[in-house]
């Protein structure tokens, strides 16, 4: 249906309500935080059977790709290379697409085994994986950025269906806004669908935080990874089949507390098609999270109430009577809830009464949805609601913040660490080379040092970071190499704005301001300019990247001998 008539009016009103309350913080800049410490290193868990099979098959293609680039690689020394995209809203989404486009043109894309994303980079990944063959045609995703987005009716149809589900949250609303306005699609493809595809593309690993454990200060219960085969807690080694993510244990025939690593392996094998007949006999319901909800979760920086409130305009703070405490510099969450609840009740009461006066029909249906489904979510401020597959688990190593809660609250991982290092550290994926693309708004190299601190905290190997390079934070080079060792991966770090494309630190700041996250979707000119910057960064460093790929293969061979 075109954008006209009464229905569009009500739909627009629904979106205005949300934009008024939360979209003043559109694409909030995410600043990571972290802590240092030391804990014994835990033994690595096995990968899912599906991922193991993918890795085995993909490495054959990687070896061929490296050989075509002039590297003679033995079958047992194919390096595990992971490309990581940082957060950074639409700046990160566009820049990652540009980087991948150039890697494809330079024949480097097929050397990647893994791809990981946080926040904005994750939006781009979710958009790319709509196409099972995207790595052979990255231009299609780039072209979509400047095309019209989905019709309002299409967005509302998805939201109305989603809102009938028990775990409907603000992440779903946010995901529909991000997906339709930035990535220009409403993709119903499910993350678990990728499990049945070929190995044409790198294996995707998305990242989120479990909000309650993060706020509780837990180390091992906060980082949550999502892959086509399994999703779960990186450091706890507890996972569930991604096709069953969001289902409660009773939904799939398991009792509470039985959905850990061990209980999910057979289901993963069934979902990936290895024993499809068994799956059909058992009538396991395969569903899981779609890409719209996924984008809402991994991009939900606004789930951080304090950060969101700090960006609200004064006029809205006055309406809600919410102001930061001068002594503490933060709004008490209970105070916020009480005041917002009172304000929302003033708004909702006449709207509920008005519903009674409306005749039955489409108008009443839309108004009812806004009043009864949408606006109450704002008072609850719940994001990323997902059934907790380890609820009431008997495992004593699971923190109380997980065992005692029926639902997980999955939010933007960039609130803690704005680049997805955790899933690629340690022996589990045995990554030899990490190519880290930093599109963050904050100081360059910050996410790298925070990742180092995290690695210390969880007892995983990490390259030595020479503190002298931190003096270049304001005006970084375009290419850094932090050599690994027998157990630590080598990290190539590439900041978006750098000494090669900016004259000085002042121009870096100027570029950051030009492509800030706090603005409406970029126009065609801005998209083209940012794509060129990202593509040039990759093009200028092609030979250096190839050298590090070869070095990673040599190190792997030396470890094997």
TrEMBL record:
Region Disordered, residue ranges: 240-264
PLA2c domain ranges (all copies): 33-561
PROSITE patterns to which the protein is assigned, alphabetical: PLA2C
Alphabetical GO biological process terms: glycerophospholipid catabolic process
Record's keyword terms, sorted: Hydrolase, Lipid degradation, Lipid metabolism
PANTHER family, per the entry: CYTOSOLIC PHOSPHOLIPASE A2, CYTOSOLIC PHOSPHOLIPASE A2 GAMMA
Name of the protein in question: Cytosolic phospholipase A2 gamma-like
Organism: Gadus morhua (Atlantic cod)
């Amino acid at each position: 249906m075109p954008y006209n008539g009464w229905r569009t009016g009500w739909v627009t009103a629904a979106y205005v309500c949300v934009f008024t309350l939360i979209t003043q913080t559109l694409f909030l800049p995410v600043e990571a935080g972290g802590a240092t410490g030391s804990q014994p290193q835990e033994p690595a868990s096995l990968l899912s059977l599906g991922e193991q099979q993918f890795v085995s098959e993909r490495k054959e293609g990687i070896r061929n790709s490296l050989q075509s680039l002039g590297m003679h690689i033995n079958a047992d020394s194919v390096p595990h290379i992971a490309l990581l995209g940082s957060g950074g809203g639409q700046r990160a989404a566009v820049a990652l697409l540009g980087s991948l486009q150039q890697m494809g043109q330079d024949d480097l894309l097929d050397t990647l085994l893994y791809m990981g994303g946080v926040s904005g980079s994750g939006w781009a990944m979710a958009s790319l994986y709509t196409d099972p063959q995207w790595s052979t045609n990255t231009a299609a995703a780039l072209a979509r950025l400047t095309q019209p987005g989905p019709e309002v009716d299409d967005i509302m149809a998805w939201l109305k269906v989603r809102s009938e589900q028990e775990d409907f949250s603000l992440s779903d609303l946010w995901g529909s806004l991000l997906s339709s306005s930035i990535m220009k699609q409403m993709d119903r493809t499910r993350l678990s669908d990728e499990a049945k595809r070929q190995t044409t593309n790198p294996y995707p690993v998305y990242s989120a935080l479990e909000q309650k454990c993060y706020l509780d200060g837990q180390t091992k219960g906060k980082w949550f990874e999502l892959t086509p085969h399994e999703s779960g807690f990186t450091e706890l080694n507890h996972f569930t089949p991604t096709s069953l993510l969001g289902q409660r244990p009773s939904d799939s025939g398991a009792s509470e507390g039985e959905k850990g690593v061990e209980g999910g392996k057979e289901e993963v094998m069934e979902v990936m098609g290895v024993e499809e007949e068994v799956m059909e006999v058992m009538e396991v319901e395969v569903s899981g999270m779609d890409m719209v909800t996924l984008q809402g979760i991994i991009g939900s920086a606004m789930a951080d109430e304090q950060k969101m409130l700090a960006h609200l305009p004064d006029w809205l703070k006055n309406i809600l009577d919410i102001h930061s405490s001068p002594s503490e510099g933060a709004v008490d969450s209970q105070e916020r809830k009480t005041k917002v609840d009172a304000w929302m009740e003033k708004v909702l009461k006449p709207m509920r009464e008005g519903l009674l006066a409306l005749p039955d029909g489409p108008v009443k249906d839309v108004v009812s949805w806004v009043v009864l489904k949408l606006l109450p979510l704002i008072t609850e401020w719940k994001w990323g609601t997902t059934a907790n597959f380890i609820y009431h688990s008997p495992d004593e190593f699971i923190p109380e913040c997980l065992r005692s809660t029926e639902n997980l609250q999955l939010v933007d991982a960039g609130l803690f660490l704005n680049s997805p290092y955790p899933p690629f550290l340690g022996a589990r994926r045995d990554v030899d080379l990490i190519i880290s693309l930093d599109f963050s708004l904050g100081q360059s190299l910050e996410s790298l040092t925070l990742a180092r601190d995290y690695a210390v905290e969880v007892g995983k190997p990490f390259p030595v970071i020479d503190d002298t390079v931190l003096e270049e934070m304001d005006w970084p080079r375009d290419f850094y190499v932090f050599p690994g060792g027998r157990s630590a991966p080598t990290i190539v770090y590439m900041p978006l704005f750098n000494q090669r494309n900016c004259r000085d630190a002042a121009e870096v700041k100027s570029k950051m301001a030009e492509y800030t996250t706090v603005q409406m979707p970029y126009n065609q000119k801005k998209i083209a300019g940012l794509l060129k910057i990202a593509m040039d960064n990759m093009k200028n460093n092609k030979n250096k990247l190839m050298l590090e790929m070869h070095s990673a293969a040599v190190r792997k061979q030396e470890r094997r001998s």
